[in-house]
Amino acid sequence: MNKSLTGNDVKIGFLVLITVSAAIIHFVIPTDRHDLHMVHIVLRKLYFLPPVMAAAWFGFRGSLYTTLAVSSLFSLHAFLDWPGNYMEQANQVGELASFWVVGLIAGRLFEREQSLLRDLASANEETLVGLVSALDLRERNTRLHSQRVKEYTLLLADRFGVTEATKKAIGLGALLHDVGKIAVPDHILLKPEGLTEQEWDVMHTHPLAGYGIVKPIGFLHEAAEIVRAHHERYDGSGYPQGLKGEEIPLGARLFSVADVYDALTSARPYRSPVSHDAALSEIREKSGAYFDQRVVDAFEAIAPELLQAVREKYRDDE
Fold first, then answer.
1. Model pTM?
2. Domains in the chain and their CATH numbers?
3. Is residue 138 a contact partner of residue 280, using CB atoms and an 8 Å limit?
4. Rounded to an integer, what is the distance from CA 134 to the centroid of its chain?
5. Does 294 score more than 60 pLDDT?
6. How buried is residue 139: exposed, middle or buried, by Cβ count under 10 Å (0-12/13-18/19+)?
7. What average pLDDT does the segment 117-134 reach?
8. What pLDDT does 238 receive?
């Protein structure tokens, strides 16, 4: 079982540390001297930090629970050391109410912002899917190749335990891998017979063309590296840079296995698809040359039912 701390665990721990530290310092510092009383009042403002931070990290529910914890600690201290001064009493009650106003409003605002960002990310990805579907249909008479390859690549990424941010970049890189073919003339891209050496030179420019298209787009910065490296081979015989071994980005190494698997198991005008086992056999033969051995091993470990589910979801005849 993986017991390593997640990002959320660290954030929760940080919130607890700040809240408990503020409470302990607040409890310990006396108020019998004027200067200490001033410090005491300033320290009370630290209680505003945890609800706002929880709102930014966890949305409304996080700010609600954190504000409840902060209010409980603050109220306990007020109960144990209730001031005799009427103005100070009113000040403490006002601060207690302010915790809830600040915490809950911040929670709602951050949750709304996160929802808008998710909607924007979804709209961006839907636009990209439409673009690559059109490119796939232009070249392959299938609009779903890139989506299948993306899903296969993500199944592999799960096996390597990458972060969610890295997994997102890998998925987008796999989806957009052939976007550079928009720069390849139709008479080359769609040529039914074999290409000449000069035509292959033109075809081999598409990874760099795709990189040039994708790299300037901020949220696709990491995906662009996969677009550029998706035709590199583990033994260094690929293109455009001739990268070798782990010089090739992990996402590109994962993609290359997924891409060949889809090419072998999908119907093409010039040949019938092969079985799952036959595709694995062909991939295994190129392990260590075209493909990273660890990636091949990980792909073989994926349950065939998961791969079949992807093929069913993105069937070309639908």
1. 0.68
2. 7-114 (no CATH), 141-313 (1.10.3210.10)
3. no
4. 25
5. yes
6. middle
7. 73
8. 95
**How far, in Å, are 19, 189, 202, 206 from residue 197 at the CA level?**
68, 14, 9, 15
Of the CA atoms within 13 Å of residue 304, those in its CB half-sphere come to 7
Q: Which structure tokens are listed for 309? A: 């589910």
CA neighbor of 318 nearest in space, from 148, 178, 122, 176? 148
Q: What length is written for the chain?
A: 318
Average pLDDT in the chain: 85
Copy the structure tokens of residue 198: 């000069």
Please write the tens of the pLDDT for every residue from 127-180: 777 777 777 677 665 668 889 999 999 999 999 989 989 999 999 999 999 999
Q: What is the pLDDT of residue 148?
A: 93
